[in-house]
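USER: If only I could read backbone structure tokens as easily as an amino acid sequence. It would mean a lot if you studied the pair and described how this chain folds. Here is the record:
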Amino acid sequence: MNRKLLLATSLFLMAMTAWSQEFKVGYTSIDAIVFSMPEIPQINADLQVYQKQLASQVESKQKTIDAKIAEYQQLAQQPTVSPTVMQEKETEIRKLQADFQNFSQKADESLSNKSNNSFNPIYAKVQNAIEEVRKEKGYGMIINAGTETGGIVLAAREEDNITKAVFEKLGVPMPTPKEGEGTPAAKSGGN
């Protein structure tokens, strides 16, 4: 019985060794590459301008509501104001508040959509470069090492870091990490 177990274990270990020699796994950080792309500063600037425009509109609508509430409070102090006028003012304020909530929600969605529409082509471009490098270097799989998106690489050989090769494929200079910064996939070196 022990002999069969020993033989099975030996066969399993031999198969795993052969498989591991044929199947290479590389790693990089897609976010580190994407946020180093030359398009990013302009995208961030455009998004900041758009966010300020939306914030200005939200602030304007909030000021309108605040003014209507102040007007309502002043009317409430006057003894001659009819309940009908007060009810109309309350209805107007409720409508403005509902419109404000709706606008705020749509503004958030609009900013999110604009952000996605701006970043998605960059992510696709980087993903295509990663795929090309994977094929060229004979890797079976590339794992995301970036901590920004919850990467899964805890330790790896530097020669399996394809970050430098991806930057070269994109024709973008690879940034040098500042002292004490950077993810393992963002450091120079590797393939």
User: Anything to note?
Assistant: The CA atoms of residues 65 and 96 lie 6 Å apart. The helical segments are 2-22, 30-34, 40-77, 83-137, 163-170.
